[in-house]
Structures are given as structure tokens and as C-alpha cells.
Amino acid sequence: MAALGWLTPRRRSATARSVLAGEAAAEAARKATQDADAEAEAQVEAEADAVDTTSPPAAADAPAPPDFPVPGDHHAAAFFDLDNTVMQGAALFHFGRGLYKRKFFERSELFRFAWQQTWFRLAGVEDPDHMQDVRESALSIVKGHRVSELMSIGEEIYDEYMADRIWPGTRALAQAHLDAGQKVWLVTAAPVETATIIARRLGLTGALGTVAESVDGVYTGKLVGEPLHGPAKAEAVRALAAAEGLDLARCAAYSDSHNDIPMLSLVGHPYAINPDAKLRKHARERDWRLRDYRTGRKAAKVGIPAAAGVGALAGGTAAAVALHRRRR
Q1: Peptide bond preceding 227: is omega within 30 degrees of 0, i.e. cis?
Q2: For a tag on the chain, would you pick the N or C end, based on fewer CB atoms within 10 A?
Q3: 45 HSE (CA, 13 A, CB side)
């Protein structure tokens, strides 16, 4: 993929692969959003002559709006991490459950997947060799499968396992930005296809996610850059902001994980949502805003980090194994 020409100057801490992953995520997100907008416009035109005789639904009691965002500020946007920020747990863990239910892989593989998730939560650190192994395994198995197949499966599994796991408090924050006329993006290490489904179901603008290379709608078994995690998330936000004409100092970002400090530090309004111990400490030192929507018992366990980028990749392994079983 050719380098995009609309990047602003960036910190040298990001690797070339992080930059490439961020650029690819921003480009994919904008394309998906443009396609969705065109679809919506066509639908409106098709229904323009129809007369709606139904009564409007009664308005639900809305939560008290936060003191931010500023209504009408179209140079601002919001960027939300997904796992344990918008959704309880890791999205791809729920995806793996759905695939197991459909008998796409064996019980032993489900246990292995669950153990990987537990290890990442307890350790709170990411082994580069383990991460590389997970990534290469997943990519080798999904190679040759159609993107549309994963999208179709993801639509079903969202309804089964994910729809009821959205944090109402975080959802209200996202809605406040939408009500203010601003765009709202998910930013996640999960595959961009999965992230896009979730963003669309929540009525958000779009999603920045890990981009797996595909040719003619078929996965090649390669990533574009690297997983959208840590510094790569910040690069994706930076690239999208440049393309959309956003002022990052007026933008907001929300996350539960210390791994997303690069993204949170990029904007003028960082929020720590259901934060792990390291992020909570970092946020308090810098007077960042905190929100915790967990129960008291769960919130007390802030020393156990949420499954973040590598946890999502572990989930991707389960999905890949499932598709491999199906192919065989």
C-alpha cells in the first residue's frame, strides 16, 4: 500500500510498521464510512416519496449530558478504545464463543484460547515472541478465506454475544459527541471488519482496526504494517485527524488500558474509562478525567489489566482456527 500523503509530523517513537498500520487503518476507516454514507443517501432517496404514518416513539429518559463535548465544534471528534472501554471483555473472545457454538473448532482449542485471554489479563505485559507467534498463526490460517465470510459471521455473533455487553455509561459519552454533531470512531487492535460491524451497530461514524491484506476480497495471509496497538493506534488517530481536518487539541479519546497512553496523550481531552492500575495512576498524575462503570467488586480489581491488543489477537487466533476447521 502506498504511503498516504496527508500525515502530519509525528513523534519518532513510532516504528515504520506502526505508521504503516496507522495509515492503513485510517484509509480503511474512511473508505468504509464513505461507502456507508453513499448507501444511506441512496436509501433516503428511495424512500423520499413514501409517507410515514406511524407515530414517533416516546423519547427515553436520557442520562445527564457531560460538560464536554462542545456542541457545533466540527473540528473535534472522539476516539474510543473497544475492549473493556465500550464493551465488557474482548470483542474477539465473544467472537470465538460464537464460532465454538457453531462447532467450527474443538473444545481443547477453546480452552487454549481462554487461557491466553486469562494470561494477558493477569500478566499485564506482552511477550513480543508470543505476540508474533499468535499473529503468524492466525494469518496463515485465514489465508485464502473471503472477507465477506468473516463479515457475515460477525453480524450474527454480535447479536448473540456482544449487543448486551456494551457499557451504558460509555455509550452515553459516545452519544453526547454524536449529539454535538461530531464524529465518533472506534480504535482497536481487532480486525477492522469486526470493529466496523460493532461501530455500525452502535450508530458510530466508523472504526479504525487492524488491517489484514486482501486481494479481490480474499485474505492473503499478511498484515498491512502491524496490529493496531499502542503507538500504532496513535498513528491511526493522527492520520485520520489530518485527513478529516480535525484539531487534535479539541478531540477526545477514551480507553481502559495503559497501552493506549500514546493515543490518549495525543488529544486535548483524554479520558480513562474503567482504567487498569497503570492507567489510573498515570491519569491521576496528569489530572485526566476518569469514569468507572464497573461494579464495586470489579472496580476494586484494577490491578488486573483488561485484555488489550494482544488479547484481541489471541481471539483472532481462535477465529482463524475455526475457519481452518470449517475449510477442512
Answers
A1: no
A2: C
A3: 6
Q: Which of 37, 49, 81, 247 is catalytic?
A: 81
- Host H or E run for residue 77: strand 77-81
d(CA 2, CA 221): 19
For residue 219, the cross-strand partners are: 214
Specify the residue for cell string 467488586: 297
Rounded Cα distance between 282 and 256, Å, is 12
- Cα 253 from Cα 255, distance rounded (Å): 7
Burial status of residue 54 (CB atoms within 10 A of its CB: 0-12, 13-18, 19 or more): exposed
Q: Pick from 319, 327, 305: which is nearest to 95 by CA?
A: 319
- Cα-to-chain-centroid distance, residue 64: 26
DSSP state, 47?
T
User: pLDDT tens digits for 293-313?
Assistant: 987 545 544 433 333 333 333
Predicted model pTM: 0.72
Dist CA 153 CA 104 (whole Å): 11
Helix (H, G, I), strand (E, B) or coil at 217: coil
pLDDT digits (tens, 9 = 90+) for 16-49: 777 777 777 778 888 887 766 666 555 544 454 4
Bridge pairing between strands 206-210 and 183-191: parallel
81 is catalytic: yes
Is 83 marked active-site?
yes
DSSP classification of residue 80: E
102-141 pLDDT tens trace: 776 666 666 665 665 555 555 544 455 555 555 555 565 5
* DSSP character string of 149-189: HHHHHHHHHIIIIIGGGB-HHHHHHHHHHHHTT-EEEEEEE
Q: How far apart are CA 206 and CA 328, in angstroms?
A: 34
Half-sphere exposure of 233 (CA within 13 A, CB side): 30
Amino acid at 316: G
Of the listed 35, 52, 67, 83, which one is catalytic?
A: 83
The answer to whether 210 touches 191, Cβ cutoff 8 Å, is: yes
